Amino acid sequence: MTEMDRGPNDRDELVALTRQLRSQLARHVAAGTWAAPGQATTRSAILPFDAEVGTPVEVYDDRAPRIGRMSLAQIRDELGECTRCKLSTTRTSIVFGIGDPNAPLMFVGEAPGEQEDKRGEPFVGPAGELLDKMIEAMGWSRRSVYIANTTKCRPPGNRNPELDELEQCMPFLQAQIASIAPRIIVALGRPASNQLLGRDVPISALRNKFHDVNGIRVMPTFHPAYLLREPDRKRDAWADLKLVMQELARLGIAPPGTPRG
Ligand code: SF4
User: Fold this and answer.
1) Is 55 exposed, middle or buried (0-12, 13-18, 19+ CB in 10 A)?
2) Which amino acid residue places its CA nearest to atom 6 of ligand 1?
3) pTM given for the model
4) What structural domains does the chain harbor?
């Protein structure tokens, strides 16, 4: 999906959405929806929906031991042949995500496009090819990171996902993030960045700096589809990714295959 500007009405709707998501997620947590017996985690789930202040929702830290850390296979089973939102009526495939289930580095976009819908894999069209190049320039590969979207089914005509669709689908991304427990998430484009950070601001206000969300560092940057339309911004995107590489190095995380020095 693309860098689409949202208007004031959309902002109000997003604030309402984040409130709904918070209450829905709180219900999930309280009900133990995500609990897997014997799989309590010591690392907090990422539950950052706080549009009012744009910060992590600390209350979930307190409840972290009650949030089961499901495996990706368990989450996929839970998703099933999902019909939780109307995108199920037009999709060809559920695009769950791909990569290393223990990846320290994760990339999150907005929603599958036409090629992704056909193949059931995220970021496989022209934008995906550019994303692959970006990841490879960092020394990683699509198999050694994890790639997912905020919604798992293609919106018709590549429109942005609607609020009810995000409400139904985002909890599954949250569960994936909790399962993978990446150290850094690169959020691709304005919609995904704002979803992950609980904000509604232009990407220019978010990118080129880390946002700490319950212990996970989130780096917003431009969506590859935007970079295909505006190649002059590739330099800026690379600057964002260099910060990610520096932070990974600071954390002692080397790309796979890097000789130990
Ligand atoms: S977008 Fe998500 S919630 Fe909606 S049908 Fe697809 S998997 Fe289910």
Assistant:
1) middle
2) 153
3) 0.78
4) 8-250 (3.40.470.10)
